[in-house]
Amino acid sequence: MALDIKEDKDLNEKFSELFKSNKKNIFLFSLIFIVIYFAISFYISQGEKKQLIASDLYQKVQLAKELDDIDALTSELKNNFPETVYASRSSIFLGNIYFKNKDYSNAGECYKWASKNTSESSISSLANYQYGIMLHVEKKYELAISVVKDIKNDGFIGLKNNLLGDIYYSAGENNLALEHFQLAYDFYNNKNDLAKVIKLKIDAISKN
User: Fold this and answer.
1) Cα–Cα dist 132/83, whole Å
2) pLDDT beyond 90 at 14
3) pTM as predicted
């Protein structure tokens, strides 16, 4: 027992000496750790705050009645919260309104911004899908094909190929249209009623 007490005493003395000899370093490392901890905590809290503000702005975008108000709110999101998903979603929302009003130039800019400034592949794909539809309406087939082919999200495989089929058919490329309609049909078959619509397209082209 006496030996254990002596060993504990020696060990305590060694720790005490070690602490004294490295007191400055220990204090410095502790200070750095505290600064980093609070910096990370501040960064996280600021990020959460930005998300909340951006979410609120996006809700206002959806509820706004006037185009000017939607445009102004979307610009605020793009300028102040471009890294949030709400900025890109708002840009697509605004783009759809411009598209409905046949303001294709502004609609295209909205879709392109959303596609390039989001980290979510689903949002980027949605922007390109909407942009591709608009370009198809404008009969800009070559550009439409390029945009739609840039859709990467797996959830858009069926929609992507169905749209490509429509574009190729409008451009007079029936073989390519059939190829993509078939891919879309295979994706939706026994899963979605859209397969029936696509099958009608395939049958109509095959008869010609």
Assistant:
1) 24
2) no
3) 0.76
Read off the pLDDT of residues 103-126 as tens digits, 9 standing for 90 and up.
999 999 999 999 999 989 999 999
Please give the mean pLDDT across all residues of the chain.
85
**Under DSSP, is residue 84 helix (H, G, I), strand (E, B) or coil?**
coil
* Residue burial 85-103, b: 16+ Cβ < 10 Å; e: rest: bbbbbbbbbbbbbbbeeee
How far apart (Å, rounded) are the C-alpha atoms in residues 101 and 34? 55
Q: Whose CA is closest to 70, among 90, 55, 44?
A: 90
Tally Cβ neighbours within 10 Å of residue 51.
15
The alpha-helical segments, DSSP class H, found in the chain are 2-21, 23-63, 67-80, 85-100, 104-116, 121-137, 141-149, 157-170, 174-188, 194-207
Q: Tokens 């169905």 map to which residue? A: 162
Stretch 8-18: mean pLDDT: 54
| Residue 105 token pair | 């130039």
* pLDDT at res. 182: 97
From the CB of residue 202, how many other CB atoms can be counted at a distance below 10 Å? 16
Neighbours of 134 (CB within 10 A): 21
pLDDT tens digits, one per residue of 136-145: 999 999 999 9
Structure tokens of 13? Answer: 């003395």
| Cα gap 16→12, rounded to integer Å | 6
